[in-house]
Amino acid sequence: MRKAAFFILIGILLSVGIAFAQQKFYGVVQTMPEQGYVGQWNIDGKTVNVTTDTKIKEKHGKLAVGAYVEVEGVNFEGKFIASELETEKKK
């Protein structure tokens, strides 16, 4: 129950843009949830939490291990919560 409330709060805060500094980085997906996209990912050695509120964009291919991605989100209570995850062309 507490975990669900946490993710609901994060979703609300992200959607209204309350004073969390958005961060962006690029990297290669090293691990992701076995089923679906919601859960913990490892992107270039960083733990990224993807929620049901995370915007998923697959413009440049399917999200999969080995894909090059752009990640946007915020750090909250020591966790990086992704607001957007998008495949990119490798630079």
Description:
The chain has 91 residues and is α+β, with helices and mostly antiparallel strands. Helix content is 16%, strand content 44%. The protein is built from 1 helix and 6 strands; from the N terminus they run αββββββ. The protein has one helix at 2-16, and strands at 23-31, 39-43, 46-50, 55-57, 68-76, 79-87. It has a 6-stranded mixed sheet. Strand 2 (39-43) and strand 3 (46-50) form a beta hairpin. The radius of gyration is 13 Å and the shape is globular. The model has no long low-confidence stretch (mean pLDDT 86).
Unreliable spans = none
Strand order of the largest sheet: 3-2-1-5-6-4
Overall average pLDDT: 86
Over all CA atoms, what is the radius of gyration? 13 Å
Q: Could you spell the SSE succession in H and E letters?
A: HEEEEEE
Structural class from helices and strands? Answer: alpha+beta
The shape, in one word, is: globular
Helix content: 10-25%
Total beta strand runs: 6
Sheet-strand content, in percent, reads 35-45%
Distance between the termini: 42 Å
Topology record:
Elements: H1 2-16, E1 23-31, E2 39-43, E3 46-50, E4 55-57, E5 68-76, E6 79-87
Parallel strand pairs: 4-6
Antiparallel strand pairs: 1-2, 1-5, 2-3, 5-6
Characteristic terms for this protein:
single chain, 91 residues, alpha+beta, six-stranded mixed β-sheet, 1 helix
Short description:
The protein is α+β, with helices and mostly antiparallel strands and 91 residues long. It contains one helix and six strands, in the order αββββββ. The mean pLDDT is 86.
